[in-house]
Predict the structure of HTH cro/C1-type domain-containing protein.
Amino acid sequence: MSERSEWDTLRDRRMAEPGAAEAYAATRLAYELGRTVRVLREERGWTQSRLADAAEMTQSAVARFEAGGTVPTLPVLERLANALGAELVVQLRTPAA
């Protein structure tokens, strides 16, 4: 069996476990939020330390967030958005059919 098919089998087995799909979705969301903050920060030419100062956070907290390692609270997202001069938009919508 190839490494790829072993990985596919393991992934399928893990995703069938209770709660796995929800955990995967939360991880994906944390990654996407972190990536967005990193892009906005880099567009401004800021270091993580500069963003941390502006958002009243530590550099390590910004690094963890950008890496998708934490799911932030709404107040943290608001501080990051304000520091970056961005608008925080939180929506609930029905999925497209």
